[in-house]
Amino acid sequence: MYMIDIKSRVPIYEQLKNRTLELIMAGILASGDKMPSVRSLAGDLGVNPNTIQKAYQDMEKEGIIYTVAGRGSFVSENQTINESSIRNAIEKLEKSAYEARLYGVTIEKATLIVKQAFERE
Amino acid sequence: MYMIDIKSRVPIYEQLKNRTLELIMAGILASGDKMPSVRSLAGDLGVNPNTIQKAYQDMEKEGIIYTVAGRGSFVSENQTINESSIRNAIEKLEKSAYEARLYGVTIEKATLIVKQAFERE
Amino acid sequence: MYMIDIKSRVPIYEQLKNRTLELIMAGILASGDKMPSVRSLAGDLGVNPNTIQKAYQDMEKEGIIYTVAGRGSFVSENQTINESSIRNAIEKLEKSAYEARLYGVTIEKATLIVKQAFERE
Amino acid sequence: MYMIDIKSRVPIYEQLKNRTLELIMAGILASGDKMPSVRSLAGDLGVNPNTIQKAYQDMEKEGIIYTVAGRGSFVSENQTINESSIRNAIEKLEKSAYEARLYGVTIEKATLIVKQAFERE
DNA sequence: GTGGTCTAGACCACA
DNA sequence: GTGGTCTAGACCACA
């Protein structure tokens, strides 16, 4: 269920966050489901436990998962995702749209790219 | 003509690139126009000449400007902007659109954000 | 009489302690009353007996209950609750009040929050 | 300006966050001021750079400071502190007030403790 | 020089 | 077993 692209320039912990959100969006991970433990996932993916931990702690702060020390991490209710994380994602979209424009990308092309990103998979 | 926002999370060299592209788009900088010298711009903006140098080297690599030893840097023909820079900008747009989706932003909202980024200023 | 919230960030053994104190405060558990056995409570709540054991040991150390080998655990006289547990609770209150202040919470707001916590239920 | 209590049970990175908020509250650190670099502070305090980094990244996510890679970290405008951090501090205060009550602390005593936490220093 | 990511591994509290 | 904190240290991008 989890995999990482070690060659990607996207940090591993960010790949893990994105993947978790994908699994939640797809309904594969539902509220209350247990996440793999930090150590087991680290072992499976061949990365350091600290890297997994960083991803999990990030997700907890964003309200995506919640953690009970000694028991594990669990998927939160959908509603609990932090406003600030959403705002952040929107700002990044704004900025990259503006930059694309500077490189001569037309609004039609940009809109198409966004559409395709939403239809992906 | 040039200004930077020192508080911005956008790296200074990227702000300089963006600003140059804006000036070209707006017709204020035209093909063949001379760019300010690295040292004079560094002085005006109060930043390290290395930072300006980095921006200029980046832009030369991307085909936005060209440099003639001993004479200075000049704006390229519009057509020579590197395909790879454009592809890079498109990739960033794709990635941020995808991430926005992961955080629950709807396609309608994302499209609106892009539209506004293109109508800005 | 006992219930736990498995999703809460509050450790289970702490929830059990809190609940016991609530029952004592409310007069439902009085000095000398027998506590449920570790195993029966673990079975009822569906948690590991070790967790219940931990809560009971903690409460014994704090003077809230006492254990008679072979007979079970019983509620102590109210007077025997450890000074150190009370001091600990006070320290936590102090610390969190101070932190709230650091985040800009006003003294009026903080006082109101405390007042409501005391009027709860 | 910075010091840590290595014997405290409060994690070092949390002590650093609290101290920074104190310095901001006291007006010693103002918006735009440069924070000590991760490595210099680590050296001064004799702790690992990763620990400082964790504190800084936490504070950046909470909107207390902002970071420009290659240039350093700077104190944010007061307004930018995240709502969710404040909500978190309030929840902790609520919880500890309730626990104090369970240990027999009176509302008068609790109110006094809060008052003193706000008048400290 | 400055922050960002990551590995390797220790020790702790909690279940 | 499970997460939380921390040290020691490497390598990278950016200024």
In brief:
Chain A has 121 residues and is mostly helical.
Instruction: Give the CA-CA distance, first to last residue of chain A.
Output: 15 Å
Task: Look at the helices and sheets of chain A and give the structural class.
Answer: mainly alpha
Query: Which spans of chain A of ≥5 residues are poorly predicted at pLDDT below 50?
Result: none
Rounded to an integer in angstroms, the radius of gyration calculated over CA atoms of chain A is 16 Å
Percentage beta strand of chain A: 5-15%
Count of alpha/pi helices of chain A: 5
What is the N-to-C order of secondary-structure elements of chain A (H for helix, E for strand)?
A: HHHEEHH
How would you describe this protein?
- Four copies of one chain form a homotetramer.
- The mean pLDDT of chain A is 94.
- Chain A has a two-stranded antiparallel ribbon with strand order 1-2.
- In chain A, a hairpin with a 3-residue loop joins strand 1 and strand 2.
- Chain A contains five helices and two strands; from the N terminus they run αααββαα.
- Chain A has 121 residues and is mainly alpha-helical.
- The longest helix of chain A is centred in the C-terminal third of the chain and has 20 residues.
- Chains in contact: A-B, A-C, A-D, B-D, C-D.
- The first copy, chain A, binds a DNA duplex (15 and 15 nucleotides) through helix 3.
